[in-house]
Amino acid sequence: MVAISRIAMKVLIVCTNHDTYPAKTFKTGLWLNELTHFYDLMAKRRIFMDFVSPLGGNVPVDERSLDLKDECNARYWEDAAFRQKLQSSLKPSDVDPGEYRLIYFAGGHGAMWDFTDNAELQNIARAIYERNGMVTAVAHGVSALLNIKLSDGSLLIRDKYVTGYSNVEEALVSFVSEVPFYLEEKLKEQGAHYTKAMIPFVEFIEMDERLITGQNSHSARKVASKALEELFEK
Q1: How far is CA 170 from the centre of its chain?
Q2: pLDDT, tens only, 11-24
Q3: Scanning 2, 20, 107, 211, which has the fewest C-beta atoms within 10 Å of its C-beta?
Q4: Is residue 207 in some structural domain?
Q5: pLDDT of residue 217
Q6: Cα separation of 39 and 226, whole Å?
Q7: How far apart, in whole angstroms, are the C-alpha atoms of residue 26 and residue 10?
Q8: In the predicted model, what is the mean pLDDT of the chain?
Q9: Cα(52)–Cα(54) distance, rounded to whole angstroms?
């Protein structure tokens, strides 16, 4: 990929608005470190980032992910400007895909409900990809990629190597009865070549040309690192 001027670089980060489970009483939403770990590496390269969500406005954060012993989480959670961006995300209709070189779908279980069939987000991702940009996602955020079609009608992920939250990981966190589908199975059904780490919950990413995916929340930083390498060093 041709190196891009840092001055011109903009990244679009997609977060969920969905915060409820069918049966569990506690709330879901964005998994915080899937945002902060990615954001931190991009910020260190002085890249401008916008937040967008399916409905715009406030992005709910899964309370189970508020690990403030994680220095990166704590630093951004206590940053008023960062919190304001989370509370006032753009709507898809506010976004001009031509402004962005990369789109990143952050996860959290909420993404499984409002990413998968969102035509506006699919159109944005397709436009970025077809302008030689990058599509990236992590954990349940990978569900956004399931139904993205390119201009020729083919699925973006068909015959591509991807990863995402695995069946085993879903079972180990006891959410099998709550989620609308198994992400691993859906990726395979859509013709993707799904790969994963041998051990659950360890850092693992997959890259296929301009598509980068991370298996779980521990993989967000590595997704960002690989994306930066591709954007600036190739």
Answers
A1: 17
A2: 999 999 999 999 88
A3: 2
A4: yes
A5: 97
A6: 13
A7: 35
A8: 94
A9: 7
Q: Which amino acid is at 183?
A: L
User: Does some domain include residue 1?
Assistant: no
Q: Decide which of 90 and 6 is more confident.
A: 90
> Is the dihedral angle over the CA atoms 167, 213, 49, 150 positive or is it negative?
negative
Q: How many structural domains comprise the chain?
A: 1
Q: What CATH number is given to the structural domain containing 182? A: 3.40.50.880
Residue 56 included in any domain = yes
Domain-embedded: residue 28: yes
Give 49's contacts (C-beta < 8 A, 6+ positions apart).
10, 11, 12, 13, 39, 42, 43
Q: At 2, is the pLDDT very low, low, confident or very high (cuts 50, 70, 90)?
A: very low
Distance between CA atoms of 163 and 193, rounded to whole angstroms? 8
Domain holding 165, by residue range, is 6-233
Are the C-beta atoms of 16 and 115 separated by less than 8 Å?
A: yes
> Can you read off the two tokens belonging to residue 183?
């992400």
Tokens 């991807």 locate to: 162
- Residue-wise pLDDT tens digits, 94-103: 999 999 999 9
Task: Give the residue from 21, 35, 38 showing the smallest Cα distance to 173.
Answer: 21
User: In angstroms, rounded to a whole number, what is the distance separating the alpha carbons of residues 125 and 66?
Assistant: 28
- Three-class secondary structure of residue 98 per DSSP: helix
Please write the tens of the pLDDT for every residue from 170-198.
999 888 889 999 999 999 999 999 999 99
Query: Does this model's pTM top 0.70?
Result: yes
